[in-house]
Specification:
With 177 residues, this protein is an alpha+beta fold. The chain contains 3 helices and 7 strands; from the N terminus they run H-H-E-E-E-E-E-E-E-H. It is elongated and about 75 Å long. The N and C termini lie far apart (72 Å).
Length: 177
Amino acid sequence: MDQRIGSSSQPLKGEPVKGAGFDPAFIPGITAPATEPEPADAGPTAETDAEDAKPASPESAEASAEPADGGPEEEPAQESAPEDGAPVFEASDRRARFAADHRGVRLRLDEEDCEFHWDEIAAVETESARFGKRFTITVHTPDRRWYPIEIEATSRSRFKEWESQLDAVLDAYFEEA
């Protein structure tokens, strides 16, 4: 008698593989369902044949990059530059960085970063540890999510300085509804 380890049911051919039963890294709504790898001996498809048939020339690439009216492309307007003397707050350590200015708030931790415009922020909260040199800044969004970041200060005396600078930026740009 043969014994099998694992599920005896296999997904049907052509049906997407879903769920943690088939993929332990699957999180609904966040990760794409796993797809079957393309066999190595598969020949070129009709799409790649059509692309290979077209000769690529620099003139045709330039023509396709220009707009239909033939004029040069207009660059999107830059956001308004901050006026001189506008408050800006920046705090960082070896891993984390927090910046707030006229554009909004930017958080960075190691290689990950996120940016919030002022209309996307419900509140900004600060907290300093009773002991130690960690200063925590938390950005709250209207959809009840929060994004904390901890910055290690060189000394505890920096906390008051950072609080006052951040308050000046929040007073200048953050409007409560």
